[in-house]
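Quick review question:
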């Protein structure tokens, strides 16, 4: 059975690329275009991991991750932030979220799925 990954990304080009790379690595990908629908999907689907953009249209990724960590049904799901933000403050906020890591944009298409796999296994 394929492991399911929730991809929360509002940029269509980034979402298509990340989804393609994950499906090529034999993951099932469910998608959300904003944080609120992503939180809802995470609660309903309980994916093996959540990949979330740091900058979303309705809520930043760290705020969404805090909501997920505060919910009994999603508190243990690994979260992988994907961000172009290299500011020390942003990195520090991501590191405050338990069971999380981050990948810098632009993603490395050769290693992206492998980096995600390391967080799940």
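Suggested answer, residue by residue:
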């Amino acid at each position: 059975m394929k492991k399911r990954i929730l991809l929360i990304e509002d940029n269509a080009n980034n979402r298509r690329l990340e989804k393609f790379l994950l499906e090529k690595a034999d993951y099932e990908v469910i998608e959300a275009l904003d944080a609120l629908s992503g939180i809802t999907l995470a609660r309903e689907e309980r994916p093996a991991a959540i990949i979330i953009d740091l900058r979303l249209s309705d809520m930043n990724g760290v705020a969404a991750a805090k909501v997920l960590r505060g919910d009994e049904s999603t508190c243990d799901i690994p979260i992988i932030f994907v961000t172009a933000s290299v500011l020390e403050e942003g990195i520090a906020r991501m590191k405050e979220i338990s069971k999380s890591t981050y990948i810098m944009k632009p993603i490395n298409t050769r290693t992206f799925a492998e980096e995600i796999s390391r967080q799940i296994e």
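Why it works: The CA atoms of residues 5 and 29 lie 5 Å apart. Residues 4-120 form a domain with the Rossmann fold fold (CATH 3.40.50.2300).
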